[in-house]
Amino acid sequence: MTGSALLCDIGGTNARFAYLEGDHPGPVRQLATADFPTIKAAIRHVLADIDATPQQAVLSVAGPVAQNRAQLTNAAWSIDGDALRRAFDLTRALVVNDFLALAYSLPELDEEERQAIGAAHPDSPTSPLDPMVVIGPGTGFGAALYLPEAAGAGRVVPTESGHATLAPGNEQEDRIIELLRQELGHVAVEDAVSGPGLSHLDQALATLSGEPRSARSAAEIVAQAESGDPQASDTLDLFFGLLGATAGNIAVTTGAKGGVYLAGGILPRLKTQLERSSFRARFEAKGRMTPYLEAIPTWLITAPHPAFKGLARLAATPGRPSDFS
Q: Are residues 40 and 84 in contact, defined by beta-carbon separation less than 8 angstroms?
């Protein structure tokens, strides 16, 4: 499909919009979801502001999507693609998960919109048809696999990797996960490798040290690590190690030889700490499969609004909503 489109990247706190007419989205406009009672009201405001009448809308949502509908977890908005199509007289209103949109953006990223984390083996070039995966810690842990095609837009496989069981890589992590298991029962990846997970790790480390302390939010931990707090720095080190190990697990289980891309709201703010961390070492540390991982590049997405590249690609891709779920 071609023609004009309203592109929407919807989160629990902020909603971002861009108008697509041609090949590239226009300026991104950001609204607070709390300022509008419904997604329809927000879209009306944006369209009035830019004086545009799009032919279609493509929306990415930070949450599960079923039958072209989604309910925001942290806001009152209910997003129904079919209802939006009728309300705004559109040819199509497509609602997708945010990591599905991010995965479609991967082939569109310019070199300056990504930063290598560690170095892949120089004698192991990737093929344009190698799968790629994007992962990211945020409120939860998202992941989606991009499968290139020789012709066409490729295909994305959304996953629920954040709910896989978290695997320890050393004795300290054995003890950490045992503490989390006592509290949570099943310990999933996102129970440690996410914003809330960072707080879980901080509390568990404090308990192991014999010096329990008040719970700290992810933002507080990051700020205090930047101010030189050794306990907060230890928490971040643990977090990055588990992120690297998890990224390596996903790479070997999906065959993502084209690269593992890191996204989400947390990591771009921690670029320097991520580069200095054990992330890449833990990514590669898979015993006899280490050479396989050494050949796979790992990238941090640094583009300010990468989802819009994927949304623009989806706007140009024909298909029914069920084709992208």
A: yes
Give, in words, the CATH class of 110-302. alpha beta
Cβ–Cβ under 8 Å, residues 66 and 325: yes
Helix, strand, or coil (residue 63): coil
Q: Among all chains, which residue has been given the structure tokens 């497509």?
A: 94
Q: Is the pLDDT of residue 323 over 90?
A: no
Q: What is the DSSP code (8-state) at residue 49?
A: H
Range scoring the smallest mean pLDDT among 52-61, 65-74, 251-260, 299-308: 65-74
Delimiting residues of CATH 3.30.420.40 domain(s) in the chain: 5-104+305-324
Quick check: 144 and 158 in contact, CB under 8 A?
yes
Q: Between vectors from CA 251 to CA 249 and to CA 255, what angle results, nearest 5°?
A: 130
For the chain, give the mean pLDDT.
92
19 and 81 Cβ atoms separated by less than 8 Å: no
Which CATH number does the domain 5-104+305-324 belong to among 2.60.40.10, 3.30.420.40, 3.40.50.11270, 3.30.56.10?
3.30.420.40
Return d(Cα 246, Cα 128) in angstroms, integer.
Answer: 24
> CA-CA distance, 221 to 227, in Å (whole number)?
10
Confidence of residue 1 (pLDDT cuts 50, 70, 90): low
For the chain, give the number of residues: 325
Residue 300 has pLDDT above 90, yes or no: yes
Amino acid at 167: A
Q: At what angle do helices 230-254 and 218-226 cross, to 10 degrees?
A: 120
Numbered ranges of CATH 3.40.367.20 in the chain = 110-302
Question: Residue 20: which H helix or E strand, with range?
Answer: strand 14-20
For residue 212, pLDDT over 90 is answered with no
The b/e string for 281-306 (b: 16+ C-beta within 10 A; e otherwise) is: ebbbbbeeeeebbbebbbbbbbbeeb
Q: What is the dihedral of CA 147, 114, 118, 283, to 10 degrees?
A: -40
Cα–Cα distance, 283 to 291 (Å, whole number): 11
